[in-house]
UniProtKB/TrEMBL annotation:
Residue ranges of domain CcmH/CycL/Ccl2/NrfF N-terminal in the record: 17-151
Keyword Transcription attributed: no
One MF annotation (Gene Ontology) recorded for this entry: metal ion binding
Keyword Signal in record: yes
Job of this protein: Required for the biogenesis of c-type cytochromes. Possible subunit of a heme lyase.
Protein name: Cytochrome c-type biogenesis protein
Species this chain originates from: Commensalibacter intestini
Length: 153
């Protein structure tokens, strides 16, 4: 019992969340607080291409650090939020966005599971229907009569 308790505590400690701080050093931050806030807001909308499930602000990957610098450089140069986002999309595609716009490609991604489920249900329905007809057709007249009598009981 003691071994199970120790194993349980060990597993819990492994599953504890690890806090990742995005900005590694203060020299990465912009001097203007408004520009820094814009950079953090934009960074939270951009996907880390290494982690893929974190924003570049939350990631400590080297590529995320480089992308944070690019965002801050472009904001310091006077680009608008839309211009910075467009620059990122032009260089890395819509995948860089954590919330990509709704397009034909993303529509396919969203609706493909529904389409696959519908096709699967149709195949199952046709297969079961065909099997039912095959079983019934394979019986002779006497067997069918006997089956009907048994089904009544």
């Amino acid at each position: 019992m003691r071994f199970i308790a120790i194993l349980f505590i060990f597993c819990i400690s492994l599953s504890a969340p690890i806090i990742a701080f995005g900005i590694d050093s203060p020299d990465e931050m912009l001097a203007n607080p408004q520009q820094e806030k814009r950079a953090e807001n934009l960074g939270s909308q951009l996907r880390c291409l290494v982690c893929q499930n974190e924003s570049i602000e939350d990631s400590s990957a080297d590529l995320a650090k480089d992308l944070r610098k690019v965002v801050r450089q472009r904001i310091a140069a006077g680009d608008t939020d839309q211009q910075v986002m467009q620059w990122m999309v032009d260089h890395y595609g819509n995948f860089i966005r954590l919330n990509p716009p709704f397009t034909i490609t993303t529509a396919l991604l969203w609706f493909m599971p529904i389409l696959a489920l519908s096709i699967g249900l149709m195949v199952a329905f046709v297969t079961l229907r065909k099997r039912k007809n095959t079983v019934t057709a394979a019986l002779s007249k006497e067997e069918q009569k006997r089956l009907n009598e048994l089904m009544k009981d």
